[in-house]
Write a structure and sequence with these properties.
The protein is of the alpha/beta class and 509 residues long. The protein has nine helices and 18 strands. The structure holds 2-acetamido-2-deoxy-6-O-sulfo-beta-D-galactopyranose (NG6) and calcium ion. The site of 2-acetamido-2-deoxy-6-O-sulfo-beta-D-galactopyranose has 16 residues, from loops.
Length: 509
């Protein structure tokens, strides 16, 4: 009798315990897929990638508990082309419009084109973007007060909560599924990249109204004391608060997860940090001791930690594959006086790599890149060559889905840490010029142009001579082997031209 009571008690308490456990969402057969994408984060900006002066524990967890890639690339050293490559599977140099876009530029992805979210929709995913878009909106002469279309919704995203271009460009408003969020119709928005609107102050003429000083370029309309690129009038109620942008996107990303967790979803969470203007929330001001650039990296790390907590609380962390990366390499001086150089101390945003944003040297495009899937991916470091352009083919292969793959290669086994066999080669782009990595080698063709990027002072790798580097022996690209190894140089040029064609040089004979 006693024994039976005990058994009953055990049974009861097990039932009670099960009820007390967090609700485990039903395991989807398809994992949720989340791409977390930072803006201008360098190869050396994370403690998991060797930074000693900054500590990024939340992103480090993704790196250390997943596959941490050491030879992963964006397709370009600037934002628009990189995002174009990742979302379409097409190298951005194939599309002449895939260049840094003004905030008023039309959409550069054709609504007929294949995209990563479209492919995932076909296999049953719900799809969304939260954060930076910068791929153009509309079809020209956009009226920001009407339905803004085509945009992310027309190229595969069911839901879109975006900033149109960059944090330093107008319009400084959020756009929710094609409508400016919070717009008061009595105060319409006007945007121009050509001329100012009558009576509107600018950074150039009214420095007394600015709280952040422009260094180069950013001296048009002033919003929240920050002078921007481009002119804007109206839309007062809809304007964002820069210091709250990170929290704002975090809430949107968390809410999306909470509201969509019962069916497989794809979320592209595109954070704005550490791009200029760097505007940490007051909670993070001074946190890094490195000025605003370091502070916003810590802020982004915190956001990602909070976001991961939500995945855990909602019971879907073990059914979610996360890809983390950055659109291009690091830059310190990118248009505002914000002490990024002065307070850098011993930090090396590019790690041991040469160059940075805007550069054909490796730091322009070699970026932090990791995949994390709790319980499925085994922690490891992978030196396999992979590129963001490969996400389309890799995820299509997960579902045996036919897709228009273009330059995208199936790296799924590599992304899941089951293989180390990466791509053979990649064509890389910076400011319309291209270079080539094959195996451990990099070849940069001769170009006319500036060896230093305008005002930011970054080495562009532009030279009238061929350059050839062996990254395995010389990760800092210090020794140009073009002269001493003509055989390898010739091989590289041939392999490059077979993909790129011969019409890439800006040097006319
Ligand atoms: C450049 C801006 C730079 C930054 C960049 C875009 C000037 C002088 N420079 O044109 O500040 O906004 O565009 O960065 O205006 S990206 O990461 O979105 O490509
Ligand atoms: Ca960028």
């Amino acid at each position: 009798m006693i024994k039976r009571n005990l058994l009953f008690y055990l049974f009861l308490s097990t039932l009670l315990l099960m009820n007390a456990m967090p609700a485990q969402a039903k395991k989807n057969t398809k994992p949720n897929i989340i791409v977390i994408y930072l803006d201008d984060l360098g190869y050396g900006d994370l403690s998991s990638y060797g930074a000693t002066e900054l500590s990024t524990p939340n992103i480090d967890l993704i790196a250390n508990e997943g596959v941490k890639f050491t030879n992963a690339y964006s397709t370009s050293a600037t934002c628009t082309p990189s995002r174009y490559g990742m979302l379409t599977g097409v190298y951005p140099w194939r599309n002449p419009k895939a260049k840094i876009l003004p905030g008023s530029a039309p959409l550069i992805i054709s609504p007929k084109q294949e995209t990563l979210p479209k492919m995932l929709k076909r296999v049953g995913y719900q799809t969304a973007i939260v954060g930076k878009w910068h791929l153009g909106l509309g079809a020209g002469n956009l009226d920001w007060n009407e339905h803004i279309t085509p945009g992310p919704n027309e190229v595969g995203f069911d839901d879109a909560y975006i900033l149109a271009a960059t944090q330093d460009r107008v319009p400084t408003v959020y756009i929710k599924n094609g409508y400016v969020d919070g717009l008061d119709p009595k105060d319409p928005i006007q945007v121009s990249y050509k001329k100012n609107f009558d009576g509107e102050p600018t950074g150039k003429d009214n420095p007394e109204l600015t709280t952040m000083k422009w260094h180069h370029g950013h001296n048009n309309s002033i919003v929240n004391g920050i002078p921007r690129i481009g002119y804007m009038k109206g839309g007062e109620a809809a304007k964002w608060t820069d210091t709250e942008m990170a929290d704002h996107f975090l809430v949107k990303a968390k809410d999306y997860v909470k509201n969509h967790k019962d069916k497989p979803f794809f979320l592209y969470y595109a954070l704005q940090q550490p791009h200029v203007p760097r505007t940490p929330n007051p909670r993070f001001v001074g946190a890094s001791g490195m000025g605003p650039r370091g502070d916003v990296i810590l802020e982004a790390d915190w956001c990602i930690g909070e976001f991961m907590k939500t995945l855990e609380e909602e019971g879907i962390l073990e059914n979610t594959l996360i890809v983390f990366s950055s659109d291009n390499g690091p830059v310190l001086q990118d248009g505002y006086f914000d002490n990024a150089i002065e307070k850098l101390g011993k930090h090396t945003p590019a790690g041991k790599l040469r160059g940075g944003k805007y550069s054909l040297f490796d730091a322009g495009t070699r970026v932090p890149f990791m995949t994390y899937w709790k319980g499925t991916i085994k922690p490891q470091v992978s030196s396999a060559l992979v590129c963001q352009v490969d996400l389309l083919a890799s995820f299509a292969s997960m579902f045996n889905e036919d897709a228009d793959l273009n330059d995208s290669e199936n790296m799924l086994p590599v992304l899941l840490g089951k293989s180390k066999k990466g791509r053979k080669n990649i064509v890389l782009e910076a400011n319309s010029k291209t270079s080539f990595r094959s195996g451990d080698w990099v070849m940069i063709p001769p170009y006319k142009g500036k060896p230093l990027s305008w005002k930011s002072g970054i080495e562009t790798a532009i030279s009238l001579d061929y350059q050839l580097y062996n990254l395995k022996k010389d990760v800092g690209q210090k020794e140009n082997l073009a002269q001493s190894n003509p055989k390898k140089l010739k091989e590289m040029i041939q392999e490059f031209e077979a993909i790129r064609g011969k019409d890439y040089s800006n040097i006319k004979n």
